[in-house]
Each structure stands twice: as structure tokens, then as C-alpha cells.
Amino acid sequence: MNKRIVSWHADPSVPTFKPPPGAVDAHCHVFGPMSQFPFSPKAKYLPEDATPKMLFSLRDRLGFSRNVIVQASCHGTDNAATLNAIAQSDGKARGVAVVEPEINIDKLRMLHEGGIRGVRFNFLKRLVDDAPKDKFIEIAERVESLGWHAVVYLEAELLAELRSFLDAIPVPIVVDHMARPDVTQGPDGPDMRALRELLDSRSDIWIKATCPDRLDPSGPPWAAFAGAVAPLVADYPDRCLWGTDWPHPNMQNAIPDDGKIVDMIPRIAATAALQQKLLVDNPMRLYWPELIE
Ligand code: 0GY
Q: How far is the CA of 293 from the centre of ligand 1 (A)?
């Protein structure tokens, strides 16, 4: 694993869709720069640098105002690259960290000071060596006093097996990429039904309506994704987030054009009211609640 991988588009198009003022890209990452922030020895991929400057320039090109930077698995539990990006953002970025189970409340408070508002629990075997559920619950209990939420990354097949774990999380839960449903099953397929059942079990579970490129094998213009996801956004309008997923880790064989990903938004959130919730009101409630009037 010596060759560094580029997984992002060199020249993304300017989208036709214009996001509402204050729109938040609520799922993106930074990589490195490696010279300053080396990757974890446990990293499962070795990306080229995807720097804060590149991320903020993409934000402006796509017409967004803010970013939520999610700690990527290649940086392990060292959140320095994510914190560095937040610190360079002029207050326009916040983040989600990945932490060691032993982390104490003082270190968590320091992360909070640095702009972190959530902790991520990753269950994807191709990305992490282990996912200790009991430790994750202890972390979730520890972050409750900070007002954080838990971001979980898992696959649809794991929803049933992880249900008692999810039930035991005492803070709001955000499900990355809707738990990766098979969107070719359509809006009423077993994966979407299982996700809806989870959403109906608690009012504080949110989803990211993200990653047409990852989830729709038909490729652009990602018709299966639009067909499966639009009804979900319509039925849970106050609990959906949206993000580019830039720099698209592990998508080097089908690198998406971020402008085209933004142009998906009206196909999953058809009205201005839904777009306002998806892109502004909902992410602000989780990441910048103090700015809500
Ligand atoms: C994503 C998806 C992926 C990678 C990571 O932390 C990560 O490395 O999240 C993936 O490979 O599916 O959300 O960026």
C-alpha cells in the first residue's frame, strides 16, 4: 500500500442547482496534508492529500456555506487533521471525531473546543479492524453531557444485528449514507423498510441522504438512488442531512463529479421547503444550534 490514491475529481462542474443561503455540506473529509498529519499505521487506504484549502474552494464552487468534516478512517483516532481544517475555516466548519475508547472527558472537552460535535462509530470491516460495541456505548455515555451525537457507519445487512446496540445509544444517532441500502430494490425494498423501521423506533435518529455514486451501480444520473431516496426525504424531512462525501474515499474507480452530485439534490428533495430543511435547518440544529434564531 505505498501508492497514494486520488479519489476526487480534478475539475468538478459548477452545479445547475443553487443551494439556499447557508447550505451545509454535512459529510466530507480532509486527508493530511501527510507531511503535517501522517496517516494511521492501521489505515486501509493511502490517499493523496485532500487539504482544507481544496475543501473550502470546492465549498465555494458548489455554492455551499459550511462543512461538517468527518474524521476519515485513514487518520485513525488522531483527529489533528480534522481539527486543523476546522481551525482554518473561519468558523465555517465543524466536525465529527473518531476516538479511543479510553478517552476522558477533559480530552473530549478539548475536541469540543476545537469544533467537534459528534463521535463516529465505524462498522465497515474493509475500513476498520474492530468495532467494540460495549466501548462505543461507554463513549456515547461520556459525550452526552457535551450535547454530541453519534454517527454510525454500517451496512444494511447489519441493521438487525446491531439493533440492540443502536437502541442502547443514549444520544441522537446519525446514520451515514442511510446504512448503505441497495437502492436498486426501490423505495419499498427490504433495505429501505428496515431503515424506516429503525427511524420509526426513535425520534432522534437522523440519516444522511448521501452517496449516489457509492450506492447506485447504474452510475450517473443515478436514477435508482433518486427513486429510492426521494420518498425517504419526503417522509422524514426534519431528520435528513446531505453531503458531498468529498474526497470520496475508495471511489477511485468511479470518481464522481461533485457538481453532478449537487445536481441530485432537487431529485431527492423536490421543493424549496425540503431543500431548506435538508441543507440548512437540519444540519444547523446538530452542528451550529447556537446560531439558530
Ligand atoms: C465515506 C465512506 C468511506 C470511507 C470512510 O472513514 C472512511 O475512510 O468513511 C467508504 O470507503 O465507504 O463516508 O467517506
A: 33
